[in-house]
């Protein structure tokens, strides 16, 4: 993990507090930010030629439920959502001139087995939520041949694929800019410069 990526939470913590304070949500996880249905969080960092995006969202925004997927229908829904999330160009569009290529996707949820998300089994599984609310964390890494030509990331594909999102709070850190944005259907572009 790069130094910028490691420092992102410290750099952007004050910005992160603003949407959480303004949101009409409940803190279901002690000291963690509020779990608000319809709202996701996206951390975006550009360091060198590597673009990383971390999505933290209530599971309901992606699959329509937050319980363990035990029925065939629920399992099919989760697998379809994971396939869409693993199609990075389909959910996060970058400038063609930047020549960004997907390098890695990691999906994790305490409510879902890693295999349903397309992950290999983990050695230390998370504890399943016991409050009826579950999240999904997604880490997306792209490597760009011409990062200087990367001017924006468009999350329209993510918002189209998962209409459960009403809003996504974005924190951005690049060598040139640190900022916070709110994305919503019809307002999906994250300017990087």
Q: SSE order in H/E notation?
A: HEEHHHEEEEHEEE
Tell me the Rg in angstroms: 16 Å
Count of alpha and pi helical runs:
5
Helical content, roughly?
A: 25-40%
The structural class is alpha+beta
User: How do the strands line up in the largest sheet?
Assistant: 4-5-2-1-7-8
Number of beta-strand segments:
9
Instruction: Give the uncertain stretches in residue-range form.
Output: 10-32
For the sheet with most strands, the description reads: 6 strands, mixed
Instruction: Report mean pLDDT, rounded to a whole number.
Output: 85
Q: What coarse outline follows from CA principal-axis ratios?
A: globular
Distance between the termini: 23 Å
Q: How much strand content do the residues show?
A: 25-35%
Task: Put the structure in a nutshell.
It is built from five helices and nine strands. With 193 residues, the chain is α+β, with helices and mostly antiparallel strands.
């Amino acid at each position: 993990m790069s130094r910028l990526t490691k420092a992102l939470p410290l750099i952007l913590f004050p910005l992160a507090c603003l949407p959480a304070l303004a949101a009409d949500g409940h803190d279901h996880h002690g000291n963690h930010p509020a779990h608000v249905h319809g709202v996701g969080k996206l951390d975006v960092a550009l360091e060198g030629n590597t673009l990383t995006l971390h999505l933290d969202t209530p599971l309901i925004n992606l699959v329509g439920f937050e319980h363990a997927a035990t029925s065939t229908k629920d399992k099919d829904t989760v697998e379809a959502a994971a396939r869409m999330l693993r199609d990075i160009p389909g959910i996060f569009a970058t400038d063609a001139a930047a020549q960004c290529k997907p390098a890695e996707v990691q999906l994790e949820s305490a409510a879902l087995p890693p295999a349903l998300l397309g992950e290999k089994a983990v050695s230390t599984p998370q504890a399943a939520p016991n409050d009826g609310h579950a999240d999904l964390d997604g880490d997306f890494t792209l490597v760009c041949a011409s990062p200087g030509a990367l001017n924006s990331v468009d999350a329209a594909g993510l918002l189209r694929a998962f209409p459960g999102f009403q809003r996504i709070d974005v924190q951005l850190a690049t060598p040139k800019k640190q900022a916070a944005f709110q994305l919503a259907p019809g307002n999906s572009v994250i300017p990087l410069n």
